[in-house]
Specification:
Number of helices: 15
Helix content: 55-70%
Shape: globular
Strand order of the largest sheet: 5-3-4-6
Strand content: 5-15%
Low-confidence stretches: 1-21, 339-345
Oligomer: single chain
Radius of gyration: 22 Å
Largest sheet: 4 strands, mixed
Mean pLDDT: 83
Length: 345
């Protein structure tokens, strides 16, 4: 009995050690609080919370560094803003990112501005040499994924084309899986940060669509990438929000559904939340808490801010659907969550 009790205690301790919540809870909680202060336009408090988060966690995510640098700029903390921009430059965003972003214009008179641009350009060039080959492989896989998807859609969603598409998805997924076996999970620290049009930090990673299509093709149960994503979360190289966003494409009836996709929809100037019978919001909240995510209430506050402030400099990792048309039958499946009319902005 003593040996059995010892084994149970040891097992419990091991579970505690590898728990994603314990590995990441404090950092993500501080970042969530910072984002909520941004929603309240309290940039000074948001900056303080970001700086606390950066002291908690050695790996600083590009979106968090960017938001923190904007908060520092908005509050006139030029020295702190430059320090954060220097840190962000290490992610490979490039010199044009700082030159073209209007939010950084006030930093141009700083004595370290030229140094920032020079370093940013150098790091981007270095990353092009270091990660160029693997990025090209990833881009080619995504291109194949998109090509077969478009062919299926253009065929009128033909059954035979669907079979070809699923088989192609499987081949592409296994190729990506082999890359993970060789290099580990390809997080931003391994392939650099992707920037669109020199000014927009990409939400997610370049191969997300491959993982999503792998999930959607199987619909239920574990997939090729579940163990990889869980390990990346435990190793603190992806955020709980990213893990949840990928995992939720299994479907809303999954045992571990985090409510990061599917359940929010924007129609005209109103935000709706899905209320279908199989959705248990208590279970969603419990699942979110297990991996250190914020509550749905916090998520909704940030989502409303994003929809009301589409030209805002700050960025949040949020998932929702925007619909051009919605039937009354569909509307009945959602609970209305009003926010200010976008036409007033």
């Amino acid at each position: 009995m003593a040996i059995r009790r010892y084994i149970l205690i040891l097992f419990s301790l091991l579970c505690f050690v590898v728990s994603p919540t314990n590995a990441f809870c404090q950092y993500d909680s501080l970042v969530n609080q910072a984002e909520l202060r941004i929603v309240d336009s309290n940039y000074q408090k948001a900056l303080e919370l970001y700086m606390l988060a950066f002291r908690e966690h050695q790996f600083h995510f590009s979106h968090d560094l960017y938001n923190a640098s904007v908060c520092a700029t908005e509050t006139g903390k030029t020295k702190v803003a430059m320090q954060l921009c220097m840190e962000l430059s290490k992610k490979g965003v490039g010199a044009n990112f700082f030159l073209k972003k209007s939010v950084y214009q006030s930093l141009k008179s700083n004595k370290n501005w030229t140094k920032l641009l020079s370093k940013s350009a150098q790091v981007k060039n270095d990353q092009a040499l270091k990660y160029g080959a693997i990025r090209r492989v990833l881009d080619s896989l995504v291109e194949k994924d998109q090509q077969v998807n478009h062919e299926w859609r253009n065929s009128g969603m033909d059954k035979q084309k669907r079979l070809i598409m699923d088989l192609t998805y499987d081949t592409i997924s296994r190729h990506l899986s082999k890359l993970f076996d060789t290099y580990g999970f390809l997080s931003e620290d391994k392939i650099g940060t992707y920037v669109e049009d020199d000014t927009v930090l990409r939400i997610g990673l370049p191969f997300d669509v491959i993982i999503i299509h792998n999930y959607e093709a199987r619909m239920v149960g574990d997939t090729l990438f579940n163990p990889v994503l869980r390990m990346a979360l435990r190793n603190k190289i992806i955020k709980p929000d990213y893990y949840a966003r990928m995992h939720d494409f299994v479907g809303a009836d999954s045992t571990n559904f985090f409510g990061s996709s599917h359940i929010y929809i924007q129609y005209k100037c109103t935000l709706y939340r899905e209320t279908k019978p199989f959705l248990s919001f208590d279970k969603i909240e419990a699942a979110r808490k297990r991996i250190g995510m914020s509550s749905l209430a916090d998520f909704e506050r940030k989502l409303k801010y994003k929809l009301e402030n589409k030209k805002a400099s700050l960025q949040f990792m949020l998932q929702y659907r925007s619909m051009a048309a919605l039937s009354m039958k569909s509307l009945n499946e959602f609970t209305c969550q009003h926010y200010k009319s976008l036409s007033t902005r």
